[in-house]
Design brief:
The protein is of the alpha/beta class. It contains twelve helices and 20 strands. The chain is globular and about 60 Å long. One of its GO terms (molecular function) is metal ion binding. Catalyzes the methylthiolation of an aspartic acid residue of ribosomal protein uS12.
Length: 460
């Protein structure tokens, strides 16, 4: 499961939300699990609560109640969510549960019958009602002020920008459409207004997220909305172009390789959005993809990648894959390895297939033994690591723009345009970094590379 990093988990480490409650102010804690889309949900919940006069507690002891925003995508994610609920009950005792696992309330209450309430994903009003019932609000109109950007659980200088909910795909291994529903895009002008507020508040990197970013606006038939004296279409190309005018880095996640994705590449070549595409390919063999109910034109995808790189040579491609999917033969897996040799993707993640309650893939024949999944995962990651190491070695001597994430006494932790926070690599500056500030964009010369990270020095 992809979970928030330790410094975004108040139950695990230092809190990113720090404030002193006024006397008598009701306070709420938050444990946010799962993907960045769930993190955005947590931020929205906390923003609404803060606007109603609740304080935000950085630890269990200081909270009148704790909300656990769960993940329910894989069985391992469900187990972690149940563990987090149990810990919150032990440390605080008054716990409300929301998020994807909340779509299965009996599953939660069967394990933890003492939770106060269970709500499903992005059910903001129901969460607020549950909090009101557990901890009545006590707003103070002259004290409880809310910043325009709302409550953020990420560092100040970057923010996730969720542009839609749900998904129209019917991948056999996935239950997200069952939990979060079909695609529901936000109007373009609403997304752009939020982005403007974030940039005005100091955000220097916007991370655009959804379940299927390239399908943005399909459900709205790409309608138009007034914007800046003109109109903007609810379409990912138009949205990306407008976001690129705001002066922040714009990074696109969860892009499916539809034909119109080619229209995004010139925006990257022109510097309006970062030359970075996060595309969940999942596999390369046509039969495996067919069993997944995924698009099967892997060879055509290689042609697309070549065309994209011809337009924007600095393009970084990130993807995720599943090994050990039911029915995957050694020949099918070898096709995936050969495809990786040709595709030369920059950033790669890989998961061993797991059954998920409610997924249609559970009923497929010829499930792969666990030891074979593990062996294939190791071979896949060995190849992915070798590709990453060679690509990063080629950056030594180059001069790159990087964004500063963290400044400590021994080094500054930064990211290049090729690196998304928490999932990709870092670039470290270990001399002359003392005056740097998080969110600052500086120029460096790369001096050293490892399998996933870079080291460099500041240049003018």
């Amino acid at each position: 499961m992809s979970s928030n990093p330790p410094d975004l988990r108040p139950d695990l480490a230092r809190a990113t939300v720090r404030e002193t409650a006024r006397p008598g102010q009701p306070t709420i804690g938050m444990v946010s699990l799962g993907c960045p889309k769930a993190l955005v949900d947590s931020e929205r919940i906390l923003t609404r609560l803060r606007a109603e006069g609740y304080g935000i507690s950085a630890d269990y002891a200081g909270a009148d109640a704790v909300i656990v925003n769960t993940c329910g995508f894989l069985d391992s994610a469900k187990a972690e969510s149940l563990e987090a609920i149990g810990e919150a009950l032990k440390e605080n005792g008054r716990v409300l549960v929301t998020g994807c696992l909340g779509a299965e309330p009996e599953y939660i209450t069967g394990a933890h019958p003492k939770v106060l309430a269970v709500t499903g994903p992005h059910q903001y009003e129901q969460v607020l009602d549950a909090v009101h019932a557990a901890v009545p609000p006590d707003p103070h109109p002259f004290v409880d002020l809310m910043p325009a950007s709302g409550v953020k659980l990420t560092p100040r200088h970057y923010s996730y920008l969720k542009i839609s909910e749900g998904c129209n795909h019917k991948c056999r291994f996935c239950i997200i459409p069952d939990m979060r529903g079909r695609l529901a895009s936000r109007p373009a002008h609403a997304v752009l207004r939020e982005a403007e507020k974030l940039v005005d508040s100091g955000v220097t990197e916007l991370l655009v997220i959804s379940q299927d970013t390239s399908a943005y606006g399909v459900d709205r038939k790409h309608d138009t909305h007034p914007w800046k004296g003109g109109e903007v279409r609810t379409h990912i190309t138009d949205l990306a172009r407008e976001l690129g005018q705001l002066g922040a880095w714009v990074r696109l996640h969860y892009i499916y390789p539809y034909p119109h994705v080619r229209d995004l590449i010139p925006l990257m070549a022109d510097g309006l959005v970062l030359p970075y595409l996060d595309i969940p390919f999942q596999h390369a063999h046509p039969e495996t993809l067919k069993r997944m109910a995924r698009p099967v034109a892997a060879a055509k995808t290689l042609d697309q990648i070549a065309a994209w790189r011809a337009i924007c040579p600095e393009l970084t491609l990130r993807s995720t894959f599943i090994v050990g999917y039911p029915g995957e033969t050694e020949a099918e897996f070898q096709t995936l390895l050969d495809w990786m040799d040709e595709a030369q993707l920059d950033r790669v993640g890989c998961f061993q297939y797991e059954n998920v309650d409610g997924a249609r893939s559970n009923d497929l024949p010829e499930h792969v033994p666990d030891e074979v999944k593990q062996e294939r995962w190791e071979r896949f990651m060995e190849k992915a690591q070798a590709i990453s190491e060679a690509k990063l070695a080629a950056k030594v001597g180059q001069r790159l723009e990087v964004i500063v994430d963290l400044v400590e006494s021994d080094a500054a932790t930064c990211r290049t345009k090729a690196d998304a926070p928490e999932i990709d690599g870092n670039l470290f500056i270990d001399s002359g970094h003392e005056a740097l500030q998080p969110g600052q964009i500086v120029r460096v010369e790369v001096e050293e590379a490892s399998e996933y990270d870079l080291w460099g020095r500041l240049v003018s």
